[in-house]
Amino acid sequence: MPQMIRHINLADQEGRIYCCLRNKVVLLDEVQRSRFCAGPDVCRECRGLGVECLWKDSRPLADPYVAADPAAEFLSNQKKKVPLDPVSGFTAAVSAADPDRGDTGGI
């Protein structure tokens, strides 16, 4: 179950952070701050080192959570758990036919 977690997203040497709202690594410039980091309840500046954002995260993380590597944080957020199909027991990703494996998908 996703929980509200404070994420402290530290900027890398190039001034980039991972932005959950945009789901990508972005330059923490004035455009990013004004368009995507606006609002005291969502995101705020973190002593010039990055930003602190509050959002629901399904990963089991400490609160607050420090993301020091924007690229690694991006990759970590691309791993989503897919629930099992209660009938077949397969995940959505493997329940379709895969002709490369000789799979017919149950046909």
Write a compact overview of the structure shown:
With 107 residues, this protein is of the alpha+beta class. The chain is built from two helices and six strands, in the order E-E-E-H-E-E-E-H.
Q: Explain this structure to me?
A:
This protein has 107 residues and is an alpha+beta fold. It is 13% helix and 28% strand. The chain is built from two helices and six strands. A four-stranded mixed β-sheet has the order 4-5-1-6. It is elongated.
Task: Describe the structure using short key phrases.
elongated, two-stranded antiparallel ribbon, 28% strand, 107 residues, alpha+beta, four-stranded mixed sheet, disordered C terminus
Which term fits the overall shape?
Answer: elongated
Level of helix content? 10-25%
Strand order of the largest sheet: 4-5-1-6
**What structural class should be given to the helix and strand makeup?**
alpha+beta
Q: Give the DSSP E fraction (strand runs of 2 or more residues).
A: 25-35%
Question: Tally the helices: what do you get?
Answer: 2
Give the CA-CA distance, first to last residue: 35 Å
Model regions low in confidence, pLDDT < 50 over at least 5 residues: 93-107
> Main sheet, how many strands, which sense, barrel?
4 strands, mixed
Q: Please, what is the average pLDDT?
A: 78
Task: Please give the radius of gyration in angstroms.
Answer: 18 Å
- Order of SSEs, N→C? EEEHEEEH
Number of strands: 6
